[in-house]
Write a structure and sequence with these properties.
binds magnesium ion; 4 helices; alpha+beta; eight-stranded mixed β-sheet; single chain; 207 residues
């Protein structure tokens, strides 16, 4: 099982990180190892190597069959369920990586950096259109992120097609589809809750 994450997939989020950043012309992806998974709404422990550990709430698509070089028009056959995840990011280390042109593993792929909702919802039960979904994230009960998948720069089908031209997708692989605007720093004692189409899926304590 691998975890594929899309960067820069919502315009307003790109702007909040860097006003001068360009909108990408192709999807940008990076990967996290299976040791990054944080399951079952277990607590997240702030790592000691970052002073600016941030949440990114993302729609997660689970791949249900093997595929490579998938054509975009057939991509919808490769996923049936969606969930939510947090792409935990050491923003201070990420800024260093970006400035030095280094890879992102230290800021993105560390242990437990990929929280995953215990439940996934069948897409068919949510209207069937992955580009018409809404998700919300609250920090300590206050709304912080509201995702609307119609605002993705690259659709899920485009992402599945694009990534599969480089990396074979397998059953159980997870695609974190990028975060909307509203990312922010976490402190001990914080609590993240998030819902997909009104259904509470994430409830994570920060320690
Ligand atoms: Mg992200």
């Amino acid at each position: 099982m691998k975890i594929i994450c899309i960067g820069k997939n919502y315009v307003e989020h790109i702007r909040e990180l860097d006003r001068n950043s360009n909108i990408p012309s192709e999807p940008i992806f990076f990967m996290k190892p299976d040791t990054a998974l944080l399951r079952n709404n277990e607590p997240f422990y702030l790592p000691d190597f970052s002073r600016d550990l941030q949440y990114e709430t993302e729609l997660v698509v689970r791949i249900c069959r093997v595929g490579r070089a998938i054509e975009e028009r057939f991509a919808h056959r490769y996923y049936e369920e969606v969930g939510l995840g947090i792409d935990f990011t050491a923003r201070d280390l990420q800024r260093e990586c970006v400035a030095k042109g280094l890879p992102w593993e230290v800021c993105k792929s560390f242990d437990y950096s990929a929280a995953l909702s215990p439940r996934f919802l069948p897409l068919a039960g949510l209207g069937g259109d992955v580009q018409r979904l809404h998700f919300d994230m609250e920090l300590n009960g206050e709304p912080r992120q509201a995702g609307d998948t119609s605002k993705m720069i690259f659709t899920v089908d485009r992402i599945v097609s694009y990534v599969s031209h480089f990396v074979t997708l397998k059953m159980g692989d997870l695609i974190y589809t990028g975060t909307p605007v509203g990312v922010g720093r976490l402190s001990p004692g914080d609590r993240i809750t998030a819902s997909l189409e009104g259904e509470r899926l994430l409830d994570i304590e920060i320690r």
